[in-house]
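ok so I'm stuck.
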Amino acid sequence: MDSAKAPASWRLFDAVGTAIYNYQPNDNAGKYVMPLSLGESVRIMEVYYGQDLKAEWYKGMLMKDGRKGIFPSSFVKVKEGDNKTNVEREIEWVFKEWGGLLKSYYQNREIAKFQRMKERLKTLLVFTKILSADSNEDTRKEMQAQIMKQIEEGRRLLGLDIIVKNDKGEIATEKNTPIVRLFEMYKSINAHDTYKGKGNLISLDVLNKQSKRVQVKPSEQTESPVCHVFMEFRNFICQTGDPSELHFSLYNTSTKKFLSAEYQVHLTSGGQPTDINKIDHVKTIFSDVSDREIANLILICRVVRVGKLLQDINAKPQAQAKPTSKSGSFRRPFAAAILRLGKIPLNDNMAEFTMPIYGTPQETNFYNIHELVSQGVNVTTMPQAIGVIVKVQIISCVDFSLIEKERPDQKHLHGVTRTRRLSVFPGEQNRNDFNFILDRGEFSQDRKRSAKNVEVVAQIRSDNTGEIINEVVSSGTGEKPASEFHSLVLYHVNNPRWSEYLTVSLPIEQYKNCHLWFDIRHCTTKTAKKKDRAGFAFAFMKLTDEQGAIIQDGTHTLITYKTIKAEDGPVVYLKDATKLQPRKENEHLKIITSLCSTPCERFRSK
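replied:
not stuck anymore, here's the structure
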């Protein structure tokens, strides 16, 4: 009879190894599996033993950049044991790790971190010299304890992962440390950790149960920036009959969320950039994309027609039109195209792709057309349309600022407009964006025989004078910020949904004195003949709360009010609430706000 096999399990381990083969995980490996290159040094922290008690997987960290993950044990050779103590091995590892970080801080001009790291290394060096000198056993034990304390404090202050170890330099577990002492060690770390969210957190319930090994919950890891997506617009072969806007962005089909902001291309009715200086120079780099995300990403191109509410197929094409109701031109839903990025090779040369163009029979679905096209549901191919032609390259480069330095021969990557992620990525600096989505609205039909054609004009206005703050509103990169934004107009829809993403770029000190203003208009085919047609309603929202902190992220339902009389003053709605007259019950405008800011957390709350 076969003997019973031991249960497979992960166990703590502490060793240094070297990759003896290249290892590239397959597409189904999962996000925690880490690739290896021949010759790379890794620190092994855990080992997975199969049922036959053979080491099958290691969990560890690359010594060159600190990336963590799991990898097959057969691809790594563990360094043979030596006469060094655990503390001496820990010191050796820390000098390698912190030395690399010191160089990185210097190169990135992170002066505060550089000075802090430098002082820690100096202190460790002094203690190490004392430890290596001929000294008695008591002195060595004291120095070992001091060194481990310095390493722990250094990791905490620098925001690095904390590995709890005892005075002998061993990873602290219930096998080598009394359970009460182990509890106090982890409790102390959680209590004094000034870098909330970093380091390892332990479940205290597990510590209270002495029957099992203490399980440390790994810190929540943010995706590391490992690649960027270069895109160059080449041609738009589709008859719109009017000028058009192309809005490119990255969308994650797994999370059902947009990953990047939009890159805009404004075209004439003939399909050429409205700015002749941009011809053959329309390109961007969508920065900071994780290799784990690429497989689920699609490049989306939303097409917006800029012209009359209803097209006259016999009319001559307009050369150029501005999206303003005063000129009789409106932003109208038209079509969308997608390109799946998962099968495009990393680091390959540029490749040209034609993105087929699809429309949807219902304008009310345009806000979600990217998902419909991706699934092939409720969309139709556009007649006589060839597609959106683009060139794409996926670039492997950890830091966006190093692209030109690392690829001096690829001139097409130099001086390219950067389109950022919608959220702050680790390492980003000097970013201070207030974002909001013009999401949807619910409006009354009033006495009209048919539903309204609603257009919302968004502006940033001064609290003191009511004047428009110029050139601070943007719907994406590629075009200059504007003083106001005009929404899409859906034909005869009282409850339109736009889901248009906008960014406000203001100096920090101006936020407390500004507010969002929305002019809500009804558009008709005769609008151009009516001089300066006024809106039928308005809505507004302060950018900060009473304490001066940026308004909380989330969905905000704004009441719509009847228009204010000119003689009441430009900002009477902020000063005298009695002047505000809500229009109709249940009539409202919804927006979704989010702050994307690196320089000042004090701005969120005080």
